[in-house]
Design goal:
The protein has 11 helices and no strands. It is mainly α. The protein folds into 2 domains: 59 residues, Arc Repressor Mutant, subunit A (Orthogonal Bundle); 147 residues, Tetracycline Repressor, domain 2 (Orthogonal Bundle), CATH 1.10.357.
């Protein structure tokens, strides 16, 4: 058990180091030597968990959407908003998420398959929009798969703009504005009027999701 926990910690240490190096240097310029130095582990330990720089990058990409889950909402449109706003908040506060997004948007990383995060976020949005449609929350003309791609693509552009201008400091405001502009063409007016699209929504959802995750961990330990 102790050995297994040690292996998990080592893997996380390596991923955190890789995230820092990828965010600072980009995929192409980053080297295994830099990641080893940052992680403070041996080459053998690194290659036990990851076979290559590409494998490390895919590990960082996968980490960005696996840590916190938005609690379910009666309104699935509010749940979509919360997913987007939470991701914006984590871009401001979580180095792993920032590194994952940096890799996803890195057009110089031509040998790296960067489609995974886009596809996963579109799938999440598509599923929630289908549920929202079944509950009568969407306007009649909406095609969930199309709207999901529009939201994901728009968010990608907004976060990229915010990163370039002020290193994400204004991202919550920009994403709030994005939701206020896009959702009136998607959501029925009665649902739209009930949505919380404020800039503070992401931080509030983060605190709620963190509390739920902690409770789940305590429950798991108790079992």
């Amino acid at each position: 058990m102790a050995e297994q926990l040690r292996a998990i910690r080592t893997r996380q240490t390596i991923l955190s180091a890789a995230a820092k190096i990828f965010e600072e240097h980009g995929y192409q310029a980053a080297t295994i030597s830099q990641i080893l130095a940052e992680a403070g582990v041996t080459k053998g330990a690194l290659y036990f968990h990851f076979q290559s720089k590409e494998d490390l990058a895919q590990g960082v990409l996968a980490e960005q959407d696996q840590r916190l889950i938005v609690p379910q909402r009666p309104s699935k449109v509010q749940e979509i908003v919360d997913v987007v706003m939470l991701h914006a908040h984590r871009l401001q506060t979580d180095a792993m998420v920032r590194a994952g997004v940096r890799l996803t948007m890195d057009q110089l990383a031509q040998e790296l398959d960067r489609s995974g995060p886009f596809m996963r976020w579109s799938e999440v949005g598509f599923g929630l929009l289908q549920q929202a449609q079944a509950q009568g929350e969407l306007l009649p003309h909406i095609i969930p798969s199309e709207t999901a791609d529009v939201i994901v693509g728009s968010f990608s552009g907004i976060q990229s703009m915010s990163q370039a201008i002020c290193d994400y400091r204004d991202l919550a405001g920009r994403v709030s504005a994005l939701m206020r502009h896009v959702l009136p063409s998607v959501v029925v007016p009665s649902v739209l009027a009930s949505l919380d699209l404020t800039e503070s929504r992401g931080a509030n959802v983060y605190a709620e999701a963190l509390k739920a995750a902690d409770a789940q961990n305590v429950l798991a330990v108790g079992v």
